[in-house]
């Protein structure tokens, strides 16, 4: 208990006596973690946007005109395909009414066609853009399907964009984590380097390695934690009002962007925990390296 009291006392002294370096560490950690948080949120919103676009992709399958065709059996056969997310059937009369509604005042031209030429058809939604091409190939192999209509170019572009965005998001996240770790590590390294004589004196008077290291590790962890709290507050203060502004001016985007406040708060809590963990790891590595260098016999 006495040792713990001394460790807490020494940690507080380190923070107070070297407050300039402490503020530098805190600000640096806060800025880098804020950038990491914003980068991650940007990647998540981009993934949401692409997922929304993929959910809007529709494949239209038209059946052969055959009065003996069992539409329910064909629907079950298509629904059983692994690529299908949802399926909706349209009868010839429903399809004609839908077409008339789209054409508006020009729908009278359809009366010249005589009998309804539109066969039974299915509106099929897929899980992702990558599933469209395999689904179209499977549908074309069915003898009950006469034609398949889909936006092939759009599908290919969204699928390529989805793959690229996933790779870019991963690279951005990894780079942000590495840069944040390096900056925090080097900032704590500078802080400890300025106190190398103090660490050496503590070792010479009989302090154990753990006793010397613990206050410095606690200091680095605490400063990184406070920096993470500041970063989380900055994200909440900037992101949530921005979402409200988008909700008022561009309501269509509210179903695409991350707008759930509970999710944002949980994300910021994770960012804070990550910042504290990062501070602890960096502090431990720096302190261990310094103590090993000081205590190494010459």
Describe what this molecule looks like in 3D.
The protein is α+β, with helices and mostly antiparallel strands and 298 residues long. It is 70% helix and 8% strand. Strands 2-3-1-4 form a 4-stranded antiparallel beta sheet. Helix 2 runs antiparallel to helix 6, helix 6 crosses helix 9 and helix 8 runs antiparallel to helix 9. The mean pLDDT is 75.
Tally of helical runs? 9
Mean of residue pLDDT values: 75
Beta-strand share of residues: 5-15%
Order of helices and strands: HHEHEHEHEHHHH
Strand order of the largest sheet: 2-3-1-4
Please name the defining characteristics of this protein.
single chain; 298 residues; alpha+beta; Alpha-Beta Plaits; 2 domains; 70% helix
Brief overview:
It contains nine helices and four strands. The chain is of the alpha+beta class and 298 residues long. It folds into two domains: 2-53 and 158-295, no CATH class; 58-150, Alpha-Beta Plaits (2-Layer Sandwich), CATH 3.30.70.
Topology:
Elements lengths: L1 H16 L1 H37 L2 E6 L7 H9 L4 E7 L1 H12 L17 E6 L5 H9 L4 E5 L2 H42 L2 H9 L4 H41 L11 H35 L3
Antiparallel strand pairs: 1-3, 1-4, 2-3
């Amino acid at each position: 208990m006495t040792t713990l009291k001394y460790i807490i006392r020494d940690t507080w002294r380190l923070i107070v006596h070297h407050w300039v370096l402490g503020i530098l560490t805190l600000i640096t950690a806060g800025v880098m973690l804020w950038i990491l948080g914003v980068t991650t949120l940007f990647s998540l919103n981009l993934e949401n946007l692409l997922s929304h676009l993929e959910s809007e992709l529709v494949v239209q399958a038209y059946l052969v005109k055959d009065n003996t065709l069992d539409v329910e059996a064909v629907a079950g056969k298509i629904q059983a395909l692994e690529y299908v997310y949802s399926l909706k059937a349209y009868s010839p009369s429903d399809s004609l009414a839908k077409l008339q509604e789209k054409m508006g005042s020009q729908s009278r031209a359809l009366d010249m066609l005589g009998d309804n030429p539109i066969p039974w058809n299915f509106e099929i939604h897929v899980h992702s853009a990558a599933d469209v091409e395999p689904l179209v190939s499977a549908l074309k192999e069915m003898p009950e399907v006469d034609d398949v209509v889909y936006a092939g170019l759009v599908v290919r572009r969204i699928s390529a964009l989805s793959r690229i965005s996933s790779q870019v998001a991963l690279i951005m996240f990894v780079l942000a984590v590495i840069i944040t770790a390096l900056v925090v590590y080097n900032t704590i390294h500078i802080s400890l380097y300025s106190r190398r004589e103090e660490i050496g004196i503590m070792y010479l008077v009989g302090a154990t390695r753990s006793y010397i290291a613990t206050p410095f590790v606690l200091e680095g962890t605490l400063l990184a934690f406070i920096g993470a709290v500041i970063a989380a507050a900055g994200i909440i203060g900037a992101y949530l009002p921005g979402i409200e502004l988008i909700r008022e001016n561009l309501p269509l985007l509210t179903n695409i962007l991350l707008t759930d406040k509970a999710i944002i708060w949980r994300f910021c809590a994770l960012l804070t925990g990550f910042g504290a963990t990062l501070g602890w790891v960096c502090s431990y590595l720096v302190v261990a390296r310094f103590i090993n260098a000081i205590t190494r016999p010459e």
